[in-house]
């Protein structure tokens, strides 16, 4: 129990730490950020439930005003930006990513990378597109076209998440809760 809580807090802190890497804000107001890789890692390492909880804890701290989003942003205002769909989708992305890793045996690096693509890109972009269409007053098709700008970076993050998860499993097998 205490160990679960500590790991959830540690991964919320990991997402915050990845926010120290400078973001690149695109013309339509949603940044390219390394924090998405933290969301993927929450799922691949902690599994569905604990991974989603870590992301929810991170978002709760952001909502309370802590400047933990890349570029030092925080507060309820960030949920009224074109990023809102992605932010709402982050816990779901971690959950789906974790669910896939928990249920799919096979090479951990490959499974984690593929799970990160499915949860952290396919599912997450669904939320992101709806949020962007709403906030930017665009059609779903127009918003979907805009998010393609994130694909190369996010695929790279998914591959990195796979490698990091597999490396962690070799160094500290007990830390991989998704394969418990
Ligand atoms: O910091 C924010 O405003 C939230 C950012 C949400 C960014 C989304 S997550 C998926 C896609 N990949 C990125 O690198 N950025 C977007």
User: Into which percent range does the helicity of residues fall?
Assistant: 55-70%
Number of domains: 1
End-to-end separation: 14 Å
What composes the largest sheet? 2 strands, antiparallel
CATH topology: Arp2/3 complex 21 kDa subunit ARPC3
Structural class designation: mainly alpha
Nearest-integer average pLDDT: 96
Number of strands: 2
Any low-confidence stretches, pLDDT <50, length ≥5? none
The run of helices and strands is HEEHHHHHH
What's the CATH architecture name?
A: Orthogonal Bundle
CATH class categorisation: Mainly Alpha
Q: Trace the largest sheet across and list its strands.
A: 1-2
Shape verdict: globular
Write up this protein.
- This protein is mainly alpha-helical and 180 residues long.
- It has helices at residues 2-18, 35-46, 48-63, 84-103, 108-136, 140-147, 151-171, and strands spanning 24-25, 31-32.
- The protein has a two-stranded antiparallel ribbon with strand order 1-2.
- A hairpin with a 5-residue loop joins strand 1 and strand 2 (31-32).
- Helix 1 (2-18) packs across helix 3, helix 2 packs parallel to helix 4 (84-103) and helix 4 runs antiparallel to helix 5.
- The radius of gyration is 15 Å and the shape is globular.
- The structure holds biotin.
- Biotin (BTN) binds at residues 30-33, 36, 69-70, 83, 86-87, 124, 128, 150, 153-154.
- One of its GO terms (molecular function) is biotin transmembrane transporter activity.
- Keywords: Cell membrane, Membrane, Transmembrane, Transmembrane helix, Transport.
- One of its GO terms (cellular component) is plasma membrane.
């Amino acid at each position: 129990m205490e160990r679960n809580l500590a790991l959830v807090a540690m991964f919320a802190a990991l997402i915050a730490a990845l926010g120290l890497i400078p973001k690149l804000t695109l013309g339509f107001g949603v940044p390219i950020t390394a924090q998405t890789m933290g969301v993927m890692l929450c799922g691949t390492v902690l599994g569905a439930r604990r991974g989603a909880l870590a992301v929810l804890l991170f978002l709760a701290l952001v909502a309370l005003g802590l400047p933990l989003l890349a570029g030092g942003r925080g507060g309820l205002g960030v949920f009224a930006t074109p990023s809102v769909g992605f932010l709402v989708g982050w816990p779901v992305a971690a959950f789906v990513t974790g669910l896939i890793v928990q249920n799919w045996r096979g090479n951990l690096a490959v499974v984690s990378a593929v799970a990160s693509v499915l949860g952290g890109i396919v599912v997450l972009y669904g939320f992101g597109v709806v949020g962007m269409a709403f906030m930017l007053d665009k059609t779903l098709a127009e918003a979907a076209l805009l998010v393609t700008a994130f694909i190369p970076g996010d695929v790279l993050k998914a591959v990195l998440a796979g490698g990091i998860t597999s490396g962690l499993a070799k160094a500290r097998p007990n830390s991989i809760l998704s394969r418990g």
